[in-house]
Design goal:
Layout lengths: L1 E14 L4 E14 L3 E5 L6 H8 L7 E8 L3 E4 L5 H10 L1 E4 L11 H10 L5 H14 L16 H13 L5 E5 L7 H16 L3 E5 L3 H4 L5 E4 L4 E4 L9
Parallel strand pairs: 3-8, 3-9, 6-7, 7-8
Antiparallel strand pairs: 1-2, 1-4, 4-5, 9-10
């Protein structure tokens, strides 16, 4: 079953003080079936993150459709979904991991992961147990669990960001360079979680500069340069 289909997608950005509109991406087409992992590759500035942010509806596309087969709403064009629908999908179905952590102040590391589950309706005790499991998996020092993330290193913030998104076991997970500032051991922890989520049926769309990390993980690869889906088994290379 196709869970996500991008059709004739295009996005441009307007620089108002210069009265200019700059195209970011055009004529993007690809689809992904439930439980698959598609990797998006291309040189810096090619529009990879723009695609992910548009699926998550941080950006609104200028052209095309982003058709998502939702549990709650059936097939829905994310480009035209209401704000209420987008909030609901983010809460229950679609997760997003970026290189950057943007969280509420005065909320501890432990509380952030627990809250991700509480907002889905999980009981308090279950949320606490699962949060601690996630933080342990990503090797967050227990001394940091009740600290505020603004004191964390870049790698610690990124691991927390991943824990918050993956603990919800989303139906669709978007990964925007989630291993950018991680050491090799932490990257392997991320890989373990991705493999586990895939086994549980999560569909993933991800951007990685680390080709070795993607090897054997993606079911297919979308190459920005050619605008085509290529087999993940083929050797791929691109400019960084």
């Amino acid at each position: 079953m196709t869970i996500l289909e991008i059709k004739n997608f295009g996005k441009a950005f307007t620089i108002h003080h210069l009265d200019k509109t700059l195209p970011a991406v055009n004529n993007i087409h690809f689809s992904i079936d439930a439980g698959e992992f598609i990797g998006i590759i291309g040189k810096s500035g090619s529009g990879k993150s723009t695609i992910l942010k548009s699926i998550y509806r941080t950006y609104l596309p200028h052209t095309g459709e982003i058709l998502y087969n939702s549990d709650r709403f059936g097939q829905i064009d994310l480009a035209k979904a209401t704000e209420r629908q987008v909030i609901s999908l983010r809460k229950y179905e679609i997760g997003y991991v970026s290189q950057f952590l943007n969280v509420m102040p005065r909320t501890t590391c432990r509380q952030l992961v627990q809250n991700a589950l509480l907002e889905m309706g999980e009981p308090g005790e279950t949320a606490m147990i699962e949060a601690e499991k996630a933080l342990t998996h990503f090797e967050m020092d227990p001394k940091l669990w009740d600290s505020y993330p603004n004191t964390f290193s870049g790698g610690e913030k990124l691991r927390l960001n991943i824990a918050m998104a993956t603990v919800k076991k989303p139906r669709l997970l978007l990964l925007d360079e989630p291993t950018a500032s991680l050491d090799q051991q932490s990257k392997m922890k991320v890989r373990e979680i991705i493999e586990k989520l895939k086994q549980q049926g999560t569909t993933l769309v991800g951007i990685f500069h680390d080709i070795e990390f993607m090897e054997g993980l993606c079911d297919k690869v979308y190459e920005m340069k050619t605008g085509q889906v290529i087999s993940a088994r083929e050797e791929v290379a691109y400019e960084s």
